[in-house]
Amino acid sequence: MRRDRQLELIQRLLKYQEQGTTAYAPDTYSNELAAYSDPARFAQEREIFFRQRPLPFGLSGRIAEPGDFATDTIDGSPLLVTRDRDGVVHAFLNVCRHRGAPVAEGCGKAKMFACPYHAWIYNLDGSLKGIPDARSFDGLDKAELGLTEVPSLEKDGMIWVGPLDMKTPMPDDPMGPLSEEFAEWNLGSYHHFGGYRMVQPMNWKLVIDPFWEGYYIGVLHKETIAPYLESNRGTFDAYGDHHRMVVPRNTFRDLANQPEDERDLITHAAVVYGFFPTSIAVIQGAANFELWRVWPDQGRPGWSVVDLAIYVPEEPKTEKARNFWQKNLDLAIATVEAEDFVLGRIIQQNAENVQQDRTVYGRNEPAMTHYHTRIRSPLGLEATV
Ligand code: FES
After folding, report:
1. Domains of the chain, with CATH numbers?
2. pLDDT-based confidence at 331, cuts 50/70/90?
């Protein structure tokens, strides 16, 4: 992140600390509990947010070298993403053009892909290379039987795939007004350290909500992240639909006593980005990049797939370095799985079963208000409930 941005954020956070305050929304906001359970709204959200918009696939480091590939199934769409011999990223439906079997599994390095069913062979660029007993397919044009390409874009170290409806065009710049700042992180060379995937009985927005405020850190997370992060304190800035929050670590206070040219934001704060509306990035401490992606599980309003991937500035070469990053990964998982999601699962049940119709966001939760207001607009709903 650019130095002048860091210094401005440090100034703002020091002021909040001095005043015992945080970033405030202009007003409180009321939302419908049915936003997490209504099947008609869910169907509309699924079409608009998961099929008509591009989705992050990962940082470039997920498939860093020519020949690298990774598969994924995002909201029911099986995907194969490759980096071809020239280093160009492609995304395809992971569906053989013969009889529909997946042509690749997991991730790794490949020169080509052989379908496990009848061994049709595909190149890294998706073109069909070979058909066993090709004379049986006389009359078919091999050039038209490559893997079905899905739109993809690699920009500023992020790989985007979709829109998965295969009709809406990929925008030139999915980050929009956040693009300039995102590029400043130089994430293109980051190494993919590892990840973790969960399926949770929660609506996709209920999985995402806990990332949008620090009001609860000292309460729900008093044993896990409260020793590291300040509670109920942080900046908030909107970038169109996207947003950024910065939450000070408990070491942040030391910056008040340091000369300005020695102050470093990233060592002493967690920077949280909302990539509207389905993904979250957290950058903190040693500048590790956590990418959280969420999508509905099997088309069910009350179930979600939650995918965490950790990227680190360089490949860890020693056991000590690997253990350090593993500890970071374990802490992130323990915090959300054992704390956020335990409550989230109950809130989902309440959304589906009780008669109370509203929840409310305080002025100290500006990202919650921004996020849920912005979600309503593409659905054709008024900004306020
Ligand atoms: S389904 Fe792939 S070769 Fe037959």
Report:
1. 3-53+174-376 (3.90.380.10), 63-164 (2.102.10.10)
2. confident
